[in-house]
Design brief:
With 445 residues, the protein is mainly α. The protein has helices at 2-27, 37-50, 69-77, 84-109, 114-131, 142-158, 162-178, 184-196, 198-223, 225-231, 241-244, 253-265, 270-289, 301-318, 332-346, 351-357, 359-380, 391-396, 405-413, 419-428, and strands at 322-325, 328-331, 386-388, 432-434.
């Protein structure tokens, strides 16, 4: 009976992952702006390909506070696609599938059965494409960085020699050059290694420190002080923001409740130690990251990976386990599977279903694309530098990146400059601020 439960659940999870992934894959070719970062990242790639400075000076009205490697990767594959936005979207989707594979390999390394590991992996893919579709298939390097980091973590879990440990931590260092906010996995790896072999942990820490020092020197040689000034962009900090966004944990909390129940009675084993370390590290990193203005749901991605690994670890251990609540007998294994499936069905976002079932939905998207194309032509006809309320319109119209609204607002809020000073500089550069119709932005019904 338990095997049948898992088989049915795995089939449903594969179906969910296929449906939701199909939607984000289809959306790759829709030019509507998914997120403000799409054009921002694409502009950085185009600046790199044109030979312009990747990191402007500290007083510029634009900013680049990301490490350089993602821009080089997208610049490399850019000729295969219509533009850098499309290239980034494809890489984002492929990264989610890669992370799902790494979750499967991690679970198998921790002696989880094939079916449970597969279910955990497909749960991850379905979760990212269902609940985090504003990032999955969006032109942003965070998921690419996490894919490389997870590859390093798998290499760490499977390391049986000193050389493989060096490979594992080298991959994690590469991930940091793609996006520097993926921290829970390497911190967990260092802690787990410390528990197992303190001498080797110190050796790996020294190796990482030396490599980071050499990379820092290289980045200074390539980009000068501008790189460090940009990376350390002033940002408004609020300790209340993590509390304000605590509702976003709803996508992992149901699984974690069952994991805590399993944790209390499970015998000591590698899966218990690894998942506990990952959950503590990723929750801590998520809450700390959210104190910074502009940090969004990407702070939670390592936690989603960790939760998927928890799910794989507990699936079979909870099957057939009965708990008594007064007169109610509850099968924890069955309850876990029901909650897991129901969470996907009950989420009120209907785009994947409407795409498959509603010609009206597809026609509405086509109408919005036509409006966006007309806005692109309108902006293209404007001479001189332009800043659009919807950045993708300016980018697709061939306009250069001339004004970063978020970065300028943060400079004002942190007291680095004033709104008047920014206005005067924008006027000096002749920047025109153009309002774009909201239809050019992706909106779910």
């Amino acid at each position: 009976m338990f095997r049948q439960r898992l088989s049915v659940s795995l089939g449903l999870m594969v179906a969910f992952a296929a449906l939701f992934s199909g939607f984000v894959v289809w959306r790759i070719g829709v030019p509507l702006q998914i997120d403000v970062n799409e054009a921002w990242n694409a502009w950085q790639v185009d600046r790199l390909r044109s030979g312009s400075s990747l990191y402007p000076d500290a007083q510029a009205l634009v900013i680049n506070n990301y490490p350089p490697l993602s821009f080089h990767i997208i610049a490399l594959v850019r000729p295969l696609f219509e533009n850098a936005v499309t290239a980034g979207r494809v890489i984002s989707v492929l990264s989610v599938f890669t992370i799902g594979l790494m979750l499967y390999l991690s679970a198998r390394t921790l002696a989880v059965t094939q079916s449970a590991a597969s279910l955990g992996a497909f749960w991850y893919i379905a979760t990212m494409t269902r609940f985090f579709s504003e990032y999955t298939g969006m032109n942003d390097p965070n998921l690419l960085a996490l894919a490389v980091m997870c590859s390093g973590f798998v290499a760490f879990l499977r390391a049986t020699s000193r050389e493989r440990l060096y490979l594992a931590f080298s991959l994690m260092l590469v991930a940091g050059l793609i996006k520097h906010n993926v921290m829970a996995l390497p911190l967990s790896a260092f802690f787990l290694l410390w528990l197992k072999d303190r001498r080797r942990a110190v050796e790996m820490a020294l190796f990482c420190c030396i490599v980071i020092g050499l990379i820092t020197a290289l980045l200074f040689e390539l980009y000068g002080t501008a790189f460090f000034q940009q990376l350390m962009m002033a940002r408004e900090i609020s300790l209340l923001r993590p509390l304000q966004r605590i509702g976003r944990l709803q996508f992992v909390v149901p699984i974690l409740v069952f994991w805590v129940i399993w944790l209390r009675s499970a015998p000591e084993n590698p899966a218990k130690r690894v998942t506990l370390t990952l959950i503590i590290a990723s929750l801590t990193v998520n809450e700390l990251a959210l104190t910074g203005a502009g940090v969004a749901n990407n702070a939670q991605f390592e936690l989603v990976f960790a939760t998927g690994l928890c799910l794989a670890a507990i699936l079979e251990g909870l099957q057939g386990r009965i708990v008594q609540f007064r007169s109610i007998r509850l099968d924890l294994g069955l309850a876990l599977l029901v909650v897991m499936v129901a969470r996907f069905i009950l989420w009120p976002a209907f785009d994947p279903y409407l795409l498959a079932l509603s010609p009206t939905y597809r026609a509405n998207v086509a109408d919005k694309v036509a409006i966006m194309q007309s806005e692109i032509e309108r902006v293209r006809a404007i001479s001189g530098p332009v800043n659009c309320t919807i950045r993708s319109v300016c980018y697709l119209a061939g306009k250069e990146f001339v004004f970063d609204d978020f970065a300028m607002s943060q400079r004002i809020k942190t007291g680095q400059t004033t709104a008047e000073a920014i206005r005067i500089e924008a006027e000096r550069q002749g920047i025109q601020f153009i309002s774009i119709r909201e239809e050019a932005r992706w909106h779910s019904p």
